[in-house]
Design goal:
heterodimer, A: about 425 residues, alpha/beta, four-stranded mixed beta sheet, about 20% strand, globular, B: about 240 residues, 4 helices, 12 strands
Chain lengths: ~425, ~240
């Protein structure tokens, strides 16, 4: 591949983007053959970070470790190693990542979104009433978080009812009967009992005896974890339809004395459901499908939020709100950047950013830092509160309502990003 | 004249950065003796756990490196065992959580890796000790080495640059024994798995000292692995 080859130029541009992240604002990029260290552009610390960034951008973890000699220290050397790896067919960790990066192709048999639905707790509680209930000073939650109201279940509602309602709406939209569902994947951060939520849902929906079940953890990241698993399950030729459901009823789980009021007051109750069907190679009329997903865990911030079950089944929450908010905003911003780089997306081409929303203030912080137009973020937290694993689900349904009916040529990708205790993080791109 | 128990000798550019413990009552606190010029000693003729006497002068310190002192007239007055050194370190600056190490917010790199940094004006010191559960070296970018440690708190520091001079020297000796230079990274990982990690896990004390780098061009002070105890032993290579 010559240095004027468009593929090489694209790879070099991505390498330069990674180098740019380590340069002070306004500083020019070093020339292609300029040694990053000797020129003083990068110090030893930044050098390693930039190389890790390049590996992430090309979905090639461990790339530079596989080559003999010193780690690359010029843009040309780094780009050439990437080119060599790609030409040699080095495996990428993100499924079909090589194609994603280099050719912008849509993956083959993926799960396409055929139907979706939500169910919110039937009671809408103004935030002023929440403050009263938790004996918080007037305006404290409203001002600090920007939440106007939260949704809560009524006496007869629970996770299962919300999940079932959302699932039925999704199945109806997809025109799929429950007998056609090959897998039910359920996620909830509030449902703790057995039979599990997926099992109860299987029974409640009268799904077929051939339908398999999976309950997935990850708290607020649960839905994105479910998408990653669904994408993998579609590799099985026998799998044609997957129902993914999230349901969270925080108002009961977080009602105990071990939960700080300023934490419990942020949450609402809701559910979301998605029917994914195996899709053939894309046509202009097709719906969104899962294109790529990334994620991991930053244990550095694991103590910012710890939730455990104490005596008498009470929930005990230990949280440092400021540390958690800052770490979450940092990680979400980086997840968005990584997804854009991995998939070769320009931010302006993205139709919607579906973000986990611990509270509206934090969303606004993230939005400003990532320079995302407000109209591209479906807002859930302001009127519903933090719905846990269902926050992204309800926001995604809003985004799909707006964009999924458009011809492929008239819409852009949808980008999802979430974080949860641990600190787990993840991102998904729908195309 | 002040007596310091040398606790850190770390690599800094072409020289060594040194930290020692000064006793005050039943506790210790860290001081960083500086040579006449700059921060790094071109030659430092002592070893860790040596007791060294210095003439120390308070110098204009720039946060968070409040431990800096100008030093002169150094001479060795004795030494202690490694276990005594660790015991002393446990009575110096210690923390059980990442946030408490430097008393300020910690940020993750925005450049692509998992290194962490603090803002200089927010940190109240530049070195802190911590007990750890486990450790993992990454030779991915050898000769630059990164280390992940899991603290007793369950928190993890995923990507600490290894600046500990003893460990770097040990790894350099180990690397010289690898004949296939093209496979040096994977071979080092194999060797660590086969005999270094078991030695560390078997040790009665697993303790790290985390230091902060001088502010970089973006004014970030990065976490570094100044010390990992147990220190590597030549006998492990036999």
């Amino acid at each position: 591949m010559s240095s004027s080859d468009p593929e090489y130029l694209r790879i070099r541009a991505m390498v330069e983007q990674c180098v740019q992240t380590a340069l002070p604002a306004g500083e020019l990029l070093p020339d292609e053959d300029c040694d990053w260290i000797e020129s003083g552009a990068l110090d030893s610390m930044a050098h390693v970070e930039v190389l890790l960034g390049i590996e992430t951008a090309f979905c090639l973890p461990g790339l530079f470790g596989r080559y003999g000699g010193a780690p690359p220290a010029t843009t040309r050397t780094a780009a050439e190693i990437v080119v060599q790896a790609v030409s040699a067919g080095v495996e990428c960790d993100v499924e079909q990542g090589k194609n994603i990066v280099l050719k912008n192709e849509v993956p083959l048999a993926a799960g396409a979104f055929a139907g979706w639905g939500t169910a919110l707790g039937s009671e809408c509680i103004p935030i002023e009433r929440v403050e009263e209930e938790f004996h918080l000073s007037s305006g404290s939650l409203a001002k600090r978080t920007g939440i106007d109201s939260v949704r809560r279940v009524s006496r007869g509602e629970d996770e299962l009812l919300l999940a079932k309602t959302a699932a039925e709406r999704a199945l109806e939209m997809a025109g799929v009967t429950t007998e056609k569902v090959d897998w039910i994947i359920a996620t909830s951060e509030s449902f703790l009992g057995f039979p599990s939520l997926a099992a109860l849902l299987h029974t409640s929906l009268l799904a077929s005896s051939a339908c398999r079940l999976l309950d997935i953890g990850g708290a607020c990241l649960g839905l994105l974890n479910s998408f990653a698993v669904a994408k993998a399950l579609f590799a099985d030729p026998g799998v044609g339809c997957i129902l993914i459901v999230s349901a969270d009823v925080h108002s009961r789980r977080l009602a105990g004395e071990g939960v700080p009021a300023e934490f419990a007051g942020l949450f609402g109750d809701g559910a979301s459901a998605f029917v994914l069907r195996k899709s053939a190679p894309s046509t202009d009329s097709e719906g969104y499908s899962i294109r790529a997903s990334i994620g991991s865990c930053i244990g550095t911030f694991s103590s910012a939020l710890r939730i455990s079950i104490g005596a008498n089944d009470s929930v005990v929450v230990d949280f440092d709100g400021a540390a958690l908010a800052r770490a979450a905003a940092d990680r979400m911003e980086r997840t968005i950047c990584d997804l854009e780089r991995i998939c070769g997306l320009r931010q302006e081409s993205v139709s919607a950013f579906v973000l986990h929303q611990p509270n509206p203030r934090l969303v606004e912080t993230m939005r400003r830092r990532a320079n995302i137009p407000i109209e591209k973020i479906p807002l859930v937290g302001k009127t519903c509160g933090n719905l846990g694993s269902s926050t992204c689900g309800v926001a995604l349904c809003t985004a799909l309502d707006e964009h999924a009916r458009k011809p492929r040529s008239a819409r852009g990708p949808i980008l999802l990003a979430a974080v949860s205790p641990g600190m787990l993080w993840g991102g998904t791109v729908l195309n | 004249m002040a007596e310091l128990l040398v606790s850190e000798i770390t690599r800094m550019n072409d020289g060594f950065c040194v930290i020692g413990l000064e006793r005050s009552g039943g506790h210790f606190h860290s001081l960083r003796p500086l040579p006449r010029r700059g921060y790094a000693w071109v030659r430092f003729p002592y070893r860790r756990a040596d007791r060294v006497a210095f003439d120390l002068l308070t110098t204009a310190v720039v946060p968070p490196h409040t431990e800096d002192r100008s030093a002169a007239n150094d001479r060795k007055v004795g030494f202690v065992s490694e276990s005594e050194l660790v015991s002393s370190l446990k009575h110096a600056e210690v923390a059980t959580s990442v946030k408490d190490m430097f008393g300020c917010d910690v940020h993750v790199s925005r450049r692509g890796g998992d290194a962490v940094f603090v803002m200089p004006a927010e940190a109240r010191r530049s070195v802190c000790g911590c007990e750890i559960e486990s450790v993992r070296f990454t030779f991915h970018f050898y000769p630059k080495i990164r280390v992940a440690v899991v603290l007793k708190s369950g928190e993890r520091l995923q990507s600490l640059p290894l600046v500990d001079a003893d460990w770097n020297e040990f790894i350099a000796v180990l690397a010289e024994q690898v004949e296939d230079r093209a496979r040096i990274r994977s071979r080092l990982e194999e060797l660590f798995s086969s005999f270094v990690y078991p030695q560390i896990q078997a040790s009665a004390f697993r303790f790290v000292r985390i230091g902060l780098s001088r502010p970089d061009r973006e004014k970030f002070c990065w976490f570094m692995l100044d010390s990992l105890f147990p220190l590597p032993k030549k006998s492990w290579l036999e």
